[in-house]
């Protein structure tokens, strides 16, 4: 049975083993009987591969296991017992696997200096445009205070990340199905409680989110406005930072303020500017050039012009009707522009992870960003 486990064929294995994914967690006894691996061997794998299993330093053995951990046991068992590989080779193999997955994932964070400039509208429609191209896409609402992705998308949340923490649901259960295969995580409610999570439970959550992330090619994160830490944490994850502004002078100044933060905190993401609510292309170009010139002159930061969206009643109407523009007016100028933006963003490969713990494990950082949001 374990011979059927190959990289990237997790689903086939899931079906074969009939693992109870929906409940998310298996106890030690269930892991032994389901996988056929001897109890002492599982404990040995725990001690040798604790970093891959996501065990915190102070924990020696755990009593319940998630999907990711059970699959790892099976992979390790195949390599060590069936193929006779030494621990060092198995570790190397797992590391390579982790890196290949990491590099395949792209994180796009949508942000702005000033509020109300169209971030959520753009995040949602951009995510749909990307999902339509066949990429497995997750949209995360990281606006802690006023998360409203589900409102604009016309979706009903049925769980929060807290349900995952308390083992009431697997990550998969709290993701909502959106248009074009898009999945949506409404993170806002329940997030403050994450700040109080003990390290053991936080590590387990990290492992679960990491596992869930393997099922996606692109993650789009919608943030709140402004340069508070609870926003900028999410920018640090990004391969691509989409900075939304408008011709409004205050919005442009605040966008510049955001660029300063990107520069001063040495964020790795590429910055793309979108000018929303424009009356004409000329107006958009003028806004972008002003921003780009200041960023070059004073910060030495390069920015790219991803595009512009017209101020148009169809956008407001789509939001009011809780039906995304990409569905409500798919042939409109703005919908076409959003498709062009999606294609441009996905044309460049995701950034290779530099050799630091933080950047190398974006999903870890994502969970910690949620958890750190109220500190
Ligand atoms: N191109 C557009 N044309 C017309 N109206 C727009 C356009 N883009 C956004 N809007 C409207 O502007 C308002 C703010 O949009 P949205 O909620 O997407 O902004 P936001 O940046 O996410 O706001 P917040 O900072 O509060 O999270 C909404 O009423 C939306 O319908
Ligand atoms: Mg918003």
Key features of this structure:
disordered N terminus, Rossmann fold, binds magnesium ion, elongated, two-stranded antiparallel sheet, 51% helix, Multidrug-efflux Transporter Regulator, Chain: A, Domain 2, binds adenosine-5'-triphosphate, 375 residues, eight-stranded mixed sheet, 19 helices, 2 domains, alpha/beta
Task: Summarize it.
The protein has 375 residues and is of the alpha/beta class. Helices cover 51% and strands 14% of the residues. The chain has 2 domains: 2-101, Multidrug-efflux Transporter Regulator, Chain: A, Domain 2, CATH 1.10.1660; 105-371, 3-Layer(aba) Sandwich (Rossmann fold).
Layout of secondary structure:
Layout: H1 10-17, E1 25-27, H2 28-35, H3 39-48, H4 50-53, E2 64-66, H5 67-82, H6 87-104, E3 106-111, H7 119-132, E4 137-141, H8 149-153, H9 161-165, H10 171-174, E5 175-177, E6 183-186, H11 199-213, E7 218-222, H12 229-235, E8 240-245, H13 249-264, E9 270-278, H14 281-299, E10 303-310, H15 313-320, H16 325-328, H17 333-347, H18 357-360, H19 362-371
Helix pairs in contact: 7-17, 11-19, 13-14
This protein binds adenosine-5'-triphosphate and magnesium ion.
Magnesium ion binds at residues 119-120, 143.
